[in-house]
Amino acid sequence: MIVSDLFRYPDYWLHGAERLLHPAVAGAEVGFRQMPSRSDSGTARGWIAACTIAWFAWGAPSVVHATPVFDTVIEHGRVVDGTGTPWFQADVGIRAGRIAAIGSLAHLPARQRIEARGLVVAPGFIDMLGQSELTLLVNPHVPSKLYQGITTEITGEGDSVAPLDERVRATYGERLSRYGIRPDWRRFADYFARLERQGIAINFASYVGATRLREIVVGLADRAATDAELARMRALLRQAMEDGAMGLSSALEYPPAPYASTEELIALAREAARFGGIYATHMRSYEEDIMQALDETFRIAREAQIPVEIWHLEVAGPTMWGRMPEVIAKIEAARAAGLDIMSDLHAYTAWGNEMSAFVPPWAHDGGTTKLIERLNDPATRARIRQEMETRREGWDNEWLAVAGPADILVSSVGHAELRSLQGQSIEAIARARGREPIETLLDILVEDGALAHVAAFGMQERDVVVALRAPWVAICNDSAGTSPQGTLGLEHPHPRAYGTFPRILRRYVRESHELSLEEAIRKFSALPAARMHLADRGVLKAGLAADVVVFDEHEIADRATYAEPNQLSVGMRYVFVNGVPVIADGRETLLLPGRVLRGPGYRPGTARRNPAAGGAAATD
Cis peptide before 10, with omega less than 30 degrees from 0? Predict the structure, then answer.
């Protein structure tokens, strides 16, 4: 084979070039392995490939050929490859959606070359809890994610986007109608197909939520599932795993999830484990009962024999401040005992969730309609208020977890006539209305149909830092992808929606030096990719998917604030998703190269009976 023939078949000779071109061997002489035998033709091609790339890369005479070797070469960047090893200077070559080579590529032809001298080149960031399943149907570009460098989102916290039945559609309806979404899917196969027809800018994966399974089979009542109901929930879970769900999730703070026993969760987690899935959880408590919540999580991991991701690790409420080292030590002990437990966080001192979470779980029995009825009944409302003002075991009392109503901000509402409340504290709204703060919060729940969300300042900075430094803690945005323009721009989200990843790079890498740049990038990329079993991305390495970010480490920063959250982060020069630029020279390209990433249990083309209705499901 002559050199020109090698150019005709670049996919052959680019394969296996990493060892010679990767600057991990910088400072050492490049050695050529013994030429393989003729019978080992595959190895021979790899040997020829490596030699040929090395020959060109180190100054061999240039060869003119009509077909470029690379679609894109990012030149002279400071490569932080995601593994945690120190940065090195190199070129990164991209071809056909994958990283084709890393090294000195100046003499190889490319369709475009990007000068990255002085800039960081890193793997795309993976958001471990993204919440964009609906907003991607409104704006598939989700610029709030792209300008952070997020190229992959994992989502599905408890009430996952699928499966759906008619009853859930009815309760889900108001949330969907505010975005103008028509829910034309029943199972994950249908929803994923809709995303793929429409196109998305980022990669997307989802868990199936235990809450959603319970809503379909048991309903919204505060009671245990029967054996028959649990069997139906497991069947729905199997179908979701075969459709491509990543595993099982729970959000045990939000009804009807608290009504599920540990045994119910173990039974479902065992089913997910059969398909290679993960169990991800918003635990029952992050306040005074957090140690018991961790014990429950460890029991599920042990008895279901399943890896566990603890979402948004935090210790909340003044009585818990300073206790994050105890939490970390407890998780470390579980890991030392052989339990595969990892976690993530968003690194803000204010959490964000539904305003209705301030109300005790029993008041949600039967769903939102029943909750509003109870809030409108004077005697029941008085009981709700009394429990909110009293510390007791069994639920996270968020009213007592903040210093006062000034620390509770209304971040978004469901009804347009209440948008003037967005960004205001409960204390300020109460003062304007001439009402007590606690009554004001309950009034807003009634007025907005329990759709409002809040940001609540109930955490301590030092606890955030302790958790952030744990080597098994990755990063989550815990907010839906959004945009400053259009329908989504009318909302007032938690600033983490726009700023989580750049804020960590600004605050904890550049300013306080709590993390090195390399460790932060590892937490953004290789660590979550390993946790989610995403073997083809998360590291800059030849052959892997070309999810790549290029940014100025001195400029990267969040701009979103609690008062003005709809502001894009700055500093991202280029963002590639599967080799296609979605940010180029700091601007959106409006391309949609994202993919649905399906879990290990995925079985394409399967047709299963509908476990909830007993009917037949269509073949995918």
Answer: no
